[in-house]
Structures are given as structure tokens and as C-alpha cells.
Amino acid sequence: MNDQPIIPNSNISSISLDELESPPLPLSRLAWLRFRRHKMAIVGLGLLFLIALYCVGGAFVFSEKYSNFNDTSIAIQPPSPEHLFGTDTIGRDILARTIYGGQISLMIGLTAVILEVSVGILIGALSGYFGGWLDAVLMRFTEAILIIPQIFLLLVMAKFFTGDIQEVTIFGRVFSGSVIVIVVIIGMTSWPYLARIVRAEFLSIKENEYILAARAIGTPTYEIIFLHILPNCIAPIVVSATLGVANAITLEAYISFLGLGVRPPTATWGNMLEGAYNYIETAYWMWLFPGLLILLIVLGINFVGDGLRDALDPRSRTV
């Protein structure tokens, strides 16, 4: 008989009594701990904070009237102490225009995503929960939208509708009517991806026991959809919405660069690039600064989106 003493396995980590008795972390706390371990997500968050501070804080230094003021005697001037980012083709200060153009670009990105998320959640939830003929109709419609190239659809609709809406005044600021058109077009052409994600989540969650129990006790359908199932789909929705802001800003820059986006006098980073098209080699400052801001904000949003995807993943066990 082997009388050798039993040696504890050194690979088994010891767990203190306090750790065993400590209550589980709230989901929000757990998500934040995961998020802050993602170094690039923290970098992205810092970039977004600095750009938001630049666009909002800069409005206290330069007025909107100054950003639209032109003086042809100083047109196409390189960066100098008087004009840190130089001037454009009609003598407007590029620094001031990137500040107010950034506000419009951010507004377009955020409002377009609100519209995208609203439509995507509604269609995805109805399709996934009810199924049957409603699911078939809504998904065929979604696939029809997906088949059409988004850029092509944006260009056609922008060309057709932009000239029909006059300037609008919101909170004392005058906006080109094309801003509303661009927001609606981007929002109404971006929702199919989110709708399919929400539908897949609903198909999975609606068969869980607590949903079946809620049906059995007569819980109204809208409560089951919006209070029981939808909160459990919030992780992919948040990630999709975050990345959707970057996509909306990029799409606005695309069509504005082609001359079919937001029209002057309203400035955006996209139409500033359109104005610099003929001066790529001779006046680098006209495209460098708005292009750099677009690059930084898209990178920042994508980094934050990656961090949120990892932080909100229910299968992740890392803290």
C-alpha cells in the first residue's frame, strides 16, 4: 500500500473566503472593468473627448459669423499666426470652419443613427417576435434595401431631393435644407443591418422560459417585447449604433465630396474636402485638417466600438 502523503496540486489557485462570499458585480460595473482593460478603446474615448471639446469649446472662441466671413484678399493663405489652419478659396478661416463643420458632421452622425436604430429595432423586433408571414414580408423588404448599393442610393436620392427643401433655422442657427435630407437618407438606408441583428436576438430570446412564463400569465405583447426581450438585446444594439455614427459621418463626407451632400453656407468636414479638390497639391492645408479630423473621429469611434463589443459580450469571463 502506498503511504506517500498527498501533495496538493500546485496548479489549483487558492481562493480566499472573502472572495467566495463577495457579492457578484453589477453588470454595468463589470462592463466598465472590461472596457477599461481595452487600451485602444480608452485611446478612442480620449480622441472623441478631445474632438468634442474642440468642436464645442471652439464655438466660444470663434463665432459662426466669423467662420462664414470671407475676404478674397487673403484667399488660399497657408497656416500663419493669424490663421492657424490657413484660409480657403474665398478667404474664410479654415480653423473656424472645421469647428462649426465638426458640429454639423457630429449632429448628422448622431441624428442619423437615432433614426437608424429606431427603424432597425422596430422592424427587427416585429419580425423576430411574431414570425410567420410578417417576418417573411419584413425580411424580404430588408433584403431588397440591402441589395441596392448604399452609396448609389444616397447619390440618387440626394440629387433628387436636396434642392426641394429651403434653409431651416434651429436654435437660432441657419442650416441648409440639405442637412435634413442627408440625415433622413443615411438613417433610412442604414437600418437593415441592425434589423437583422435584432431579429436574430429576438428569435433566440423569445424561446427562453421566462418569456414563455410571461406569455402564460397574460403579459401584454408590447411589455414582453420592450421590457423583457429588448433589454437583453442592448449589447449588439449599442455596438452597432456606435459604429453607425462613424459610418454616417463617412457617408456624409463621401457625398459632400462629390458635391451632392450638405450645401453652403452650412459647413461640414465633407464639403470642406469638396472645396479643396482642385488644390490638393498647391494648398495642402485646405484638405489636410478636415481630412485629419474625419480620420481621427472615425478611428476613435471604431476603437470605442471594439471596446464596447468586448465589454458587453455576455460570454466573456475576463474582468
Protein architecture, described:
- It is a single chain.
- The chain has a single domain, classed as Orthogonal Bundle (MetI-like fold).
- About 65% of the residues lie in helices and about 0% in strands.
- The protein is built from 13 helices and two strands, in the order H-H-H-H-H-H-H-E-E-H-H-H-H-H-H.
- The chain has a two-stranded antiparallel sheet.
- A hairpin with a 2-residue loop joins strand 1 and strand 2.
- The two termini are about 45 Å apart.
Task: Please sum up the structure shown.
This protein is an all-alpha fold. It has helices at 17-21, 27-36, 39-57, 64-68, 94-130, 132-147, 150-161, 178-205, 209-216, 221-229, 234-257, 269-275, 285-311, and strands at residues 168-170, 173-175. Helix 5 crosses helix 11.
List strands and helices in order, with pairings.
Blueprint: H1 17-21, H2 27-36, H3 39-57, H4 64-68, H5 94-130, H6 132-147, H7 150-161, E1 168-170, E2 173-175, H8 178-205, H9 209-216, H10 221-229, H11 234-257, H12 269-275, H13 285-311
Antiparallel strand pairs: 1-2
Helix pairs in contact: 2-13, 3-5, 3-13, 5-6, 5-8, 5-11, 5-13, 6-8, 7-8, 8-11, 11-12, 11-13, 12-13
